[in-house]
Each structure stands twice: as C-alpha cells, then as structure tokens.
Design a protein that fits this description.
By secondary structure, the chain is an alpha+beta fold. Helices cover 34% and strands 17% of the residues. The model has no long low-confidence stretch (mean pLDDT 94).
C-alpha cells in the first residue's frame, strides 16, 4: 500500500437507467441529477440537510455537450438547493468521467485538502442537441444582435442552402471518423472474439442483472420509488437467450460484423453518485454505509488511429497491480465496464497474453490466469445500460457494496474503457 492518507469510497444513489427515449426521455441532465444529489446528501445515506462544513467538494460531469450547461458540477449543486458555499466543479473523461471524478477527489484526500466529496455524473441521451453549421450559427447570432428588424431580416436573408447543415452528435471518434462499434469490430477480429462468445457473455450479464434486481441488490443503490417515471432499470431482459440474440443482425458491419444491439451496451439515460472520504469524512456519514479503501488508480492511453480503441484497460491493469506486487488471482472482484461484450472478452484475452502485456504495459512480472468467473457478478453495462458520465459512479457504488461483504483485505478492480483510447482503472480493498 502506498504511504499516504487513506481515501475511502462509499456508495451513493443513482437513478434507474433507461434506454434512450424509453422512460426518462422527458428529463434533461439537470432534472436527472438533482433528485439523485438531494437524496444522496439529505437522505439516510448522506450528511443531512446541512451540507456546509460537511461536504467539502462536489465533482460532477456529463459527456454530451449542451448549450444550457457547461459547469455541470456547479449547476446541478445549485439546482439541488443545497449549500451554495460548497465548491463544485466539472470533470469530463468520456465513459470514465465519474471514475475520474472519484480519483480526483481521492487525490485531494491524499494530500489533506478535503475530507468528503460527492462525485458522479449524468447523461440524458434523449436530450442530445443538434448543432448548426458555423456559418448558420454566425448569421443567426448576428441577426439576434442586429440594430433593428430591418438589419436582422437582411442578415437572415443572407442564409444560403449551403449553410443549412446540421451536426448530430454520434458515438464516434473525432480523430478517425469511425464509430465506437466499428473500432470494436476491429478489436474483435484482432483478438478472434466470436459472435457466439459475445452473445453468451451478454446473456450472462442480463441474467445476473435480473437476478440482482429480483434479490433487491440494487434497491439500496437506487433513489426512492416514485422519484422518476420508472423505478427500476429498464434494460435487463429476463427472457433473453443465446438463441434470441443469434437472430439479431450486425449493428456496425453488415458483411462480417459480430457486434449487435444485443451484445452491445445501449444508449442510456441516467445519473449516479458516490462518496469519496478521508478518515474524518467517514465520521460525517452514517456508520452503516458500506465503505472500501481506494488504494490506487491508473489511466493508460493508446493511439486510436493505430491501436484498438478500447484496449487501454489491458495496459492500465497490469501496471496498477504490478505496483502493488499483485497478480490477477489476488483480486477477488472485477467490475469491468461492458461497452461491448467483445471489448470485455478482448481485454481479458490481452491480459492473459504475457508477451503482449510485457510489450504494451511494460510489465514483465507474470500476472497469471485471469479469473473470469469473478467479473461483474451482478451484471454490467450491456445489461444495465450505459449513461456515459454516470457509469463510473454506478460501477464504483456497486463494487463497494459487493466488496464490503467480502472478508477484510479482499481486493477489487474497477475498469473502464473510454473514447479517445483511454483506459482507467482503480484498485479497491475491503476493510471488513
């Protein structure tokens, strides 16, 4: 363990996750975030109504741009009508946004700058705004600031057909022009991940998520029933099977593709939170709230123009474990973000390739066989959904509850691949 003040992670609350345009479509990112923040802070799992002097920092994020909000951390906190004296800021790291928020806060705990931070993120895919061309935006702006109606009309009459171009945000890489699915198709081919293996993985994720829902595992992680139009995650499917998924057409490559809507995470609306605390910060939260130690973290980058876009975690994980003298078998819980079933399976295959790990991660120490049976015991993003900026906090909170029930000293790894060729991972440890 590194010699620095201990940072803990504790579960926050989240909204139910719902597919785009199915259940939460009438709520924007602010409306999704505010109830989550209010119930996490004020409810039985938080510090109570008086946040001044108790919450030291709020770190929040959202990936999809919106004209209404830029500093998400500040705006969601102000809209929640909590103590405005608490500083709040925004972090964006694509799919790893709220994990980055937590590690940012943990870094400040480690230096003694704060003791309790609320971290999280939100995505309202249903509220994605369409952008105008630069020329059209400029002419409309000039019309709006014109000296009178005649000047405004003259400016608007200058709009040409070439100006009438619109930009619809898409899940694609700016540097390559390829969608994330297209990149993952390449990853699946490179690592020889079959369609059958992907479908089998997806079915397991759904069945585990359904079982966790039915057992009540998610109930303590969700806001109170009646808060939103839906009370539970709408994505998990109890009746799915390999036979059902095998009939779905490829989503990104019609000729030889293996990724489908069934073995990929869906576009999703939702918000999620978690707590990061130091020793004093723990005393501000309920004693019965599960907590684990956030031992360390690592972020790796690859060049999406020449490498597999989502392979970053396979570089970050060995580096993180080697720093602590650990092997894969020393980790009792793995929570790996499932952007696609193929991405998880390719990551595991890369982790087990000692020569690849030595070359790309620079880790020569043997890591051993990967314990795939310890991955996502309560389902992952393929089954639960993936609101980009909320996923990290969802996974962290879920991992804390899972790991806290294990013997003291059990380690857990949270792993998230992200657009731009990033892989972010965190090492957790149960405290009994």
């Amino acid at each position: 363990m590194l010699d620095r003040p201990t940072a803990y992670v504790l579960p926050g609350l989240r909204s139910p996750f719902a597919k785009i345009d199915r259940g939460l479509e009438d709520l924007d990112g602010l409306q999704l975030s505010v109830p989550v923040i209010q119930q996490t802070v004020i409810g039985s799992r938080g510090v109570g109504p008086e946040s001044s002097g108790l919450v030291d920092l709020v770190v929040w994020g959202s990936v999809i741009p919106t004209l209404a909000v830029s500093n998400w951390g500040r705006e969601v906190w102000l809209d929640a009508r909590l103590d405005a004296r608490v500083p709040s800021l925004t972090i964006v790291q694509q799919c790893a946004t709220s994990l980055a928020a937590a590690t940012h806060a943990a870094g400040q705990v480690a230096t003694g700058h704060l003791q309790l931070a609320l971290c999280g993120g939100v995505e309202s895919m249903s509220s994605t705004q369409v952008g105008l061309s630069r020329s059209l935006s400029r002419k409309i702006r000039r019309a709006g600031s014109a000296g009178g109606p005649v000047d405004a009309a003259r400016t608007l009459l200058g709009i040409r057909p070439a100006d009438l171009r619109f930009s619809v945000p898409a899940v694609e890489e700016r540097t390559t022009g390829k969608s994330m699915g297209e990149h993952t198709e390449e990853m699946a081919r490179d690592w020889e991940i079959t369609r059958e293996a992907q479908d089998e993985y997806a079915v397991t994720s759904h069945h585990r998520a359904v079982r966790a829902t039915e057992s009540g595992f998610f109930r303590t992680l969700l806001v109170s029933p009646g808060t939103f139009p839906v009370d539970e995650d709408t994505v998990p499917r109890a009746n799915t099977s390999v036979e059902v998924l095998s009939k779905l057409p490829p989503a990104f490559d019609g000729e030889r593709g293996t990724l489908t809507a069934g073995n990929s995470s869906p576009l999703t609306d939702g918000a999620a939170s978690c707590w990061v605390a130091g020793e004093d910060g723990l005393s501000r939260l309920p004693d019965d709230l599960p907590r684990v130690v956030l031992l360390d973290w690592e972020t790796a980058g690859v060049d999406p123009r020449t490498e597999a876009l989502l392979i970053g975690p396979a570089i970050a994980i060995p580096r993180l474990l080697a720093r602590h003298g650990l092997t894969y078998a020393d980790v009792g819980l793995w929570e790996i973000h499932e952007a696609f079933a193929a991405q998880v399976l390719a990551t595991i295959r890369a982790l087990e390739d000692a020569s690849w790990v030595a070359e790309r991660a620079g880790v020569e120490a043997p890591m051993g066989a990967f314990p795939a049976d310890r991955v996502n015991p309560n389902g992952g993003s393929v089954a639960l959904g993936h609101p980009f900026a909320a996923t990290g906090a969802r996974i962290l909170s879920q991992a804390v509850v899972e790991l806290a029930a294990m013997p003291a000293g059990t380690r857990g790894v949270v792993s998230i691949c992200a657009a731009g060729g990033l892989g972010s991972v965190a090492l957790l440890e149960s405290v009994g």
